[in-house]
Amino acid sequence: MADAGEDIFMKHFKALKRKCPPADLTSVLDLDNPGSFTNKISRITPKGVSADSMFGLLPVSEWRAYELLDVPGAIIIRNPFTEMLRRYFVCRCLSDYPRQPNISNLDTSPRIYPEIWQAGCHPNSDLRARKYLHKLRWVTLGYHYDWTKKVYSQESCNDFPQDLSTTTQHIVQAVLGESCDFKAEAAIVNFYHLDSSLSGHTDHSEFDLAAPLISVSFGLPCVFMIGGQTKTKVPQALYLRDGDVVIMSGKARMSYHAVPKVLPKNVFSAAKKSDTPSSVDKNTMTSTVNPKCDDECSKRSHCEEFTEHSSAKKVKHDADTSCFTQLINCVHDTEFWKPYETYLHESRINLNVRQLFEPGKQAKDYCWPTTDPAFNFLTNST
Ligand code: OGA
Ligand code: MN
């Protein structure tokens, strides 16, 4: 379906993607330093109350959230994660989510290494295994996506990870209100390296095109672009950094968007944020869990608090993966965390979470498109 009129989006995409001569990035909005762009954004105050007690996210009152005035409904939250939850999800994206029966780009032929991360994550891992890990580009969760036919598959579906669905629901409710009952039913985990980009597209394969899209970034910063519902509108480009969340809601749900460029780690050399969990995190977490938390609580470790809170909130972990609490305990360990941090120095992870069905509806209420025969073969062969 070609849009009538000039492809302005593509023009901007190419200009920002350019390597030689280097792209002019002066039109890219930096939420940490908006300068002359202040008229392009409005600060929004997350209104949900339940998210105040979401453990592992900073208190909602501390979130910095903005809406793009030229793209109403496009909301960016600057890293609302505590360092602990950030590490937790990075580990899940690299060591758990790529496991079968989830599907990755490496599954078009039998996997050379079934455990992609575990085989290739160490500097002294076998070179072939390291190259294999470097080739990991995407993993699908929940209802798997057939990239050839651009449809979701009814047959190929796994339980959606509870941790990711709980967290995304809290974020959506905090920003869009308690009445927005977002249900994570499918996700694509994208793995980018410095030379990667994602060209302009809309996400339109979901049955519900009104429910928001939630996109979480970890690791290297990037330039993200978002425009209108056709490619004829001038898009807004902005930097996304480690931990940032983009919500595409309302009219922006069907906006064209793209990632023309991944940037090196030191590009914002003035960035001061520490890479290790800080005392600030600890204090924040205590108040996040329970505002009434007193001395007794603050004496306990993050892990104990996390465990208690997560069981209280019934956050279940996938049975086939390391348990939630175990992983939380592990991410504090410098040795355990090191390979993940190394990966993030050279790569960007994007967790793109979608609701497929309209409120009150389920899979059986829809007429599903057929998936590619090769895709069926792939998903039945595990
Ligand atoms: C997607 C997508 C954006 C990003 O996977 O559909 O738009 O920030 N990703 O990587
Ligand atoms: Mn998209």
UniProtKB/TrEMBL annotation:
Pfam families to which the protein is assigned, alphabetical: 2OG-FeII_Oxy_2 (PF13532)
Single GO cellular component term: cytoplasm
Cofactor(s) listed in the protein's UniProt record: Fe(2+)
GO-annotated molecular function: broad specificity oxidative DNA demethylase activity; ferrous iron binding; oxidative RNA demethylase activity
Signal peptide: none
Gene3D superfamilies per record: Alpha-ketoglutarate-dependent dioxygenase AlkB-like
Free-text cofactor note: Binds 1 Fe(2+) ion per subunit.
Domain Fe2OG dioxygenase: 183-291
Binding positions for Fe cation per the UniProt entry: H201, D203, H257
GO biological process terms on file: oxidative RNA demethylation
Keyword field: Dioxygenase, Iron, Metal-binding, Oxidoreductase
SUPFAM superfamilies reported in the protein's UniProt record: Clavaminate synthase-like
Protein name from the UniProt record: AlkB
Higher taxonomy: Eukaryota, Metazoa, Spiralia, Lophotrochozoa, Bryozoa
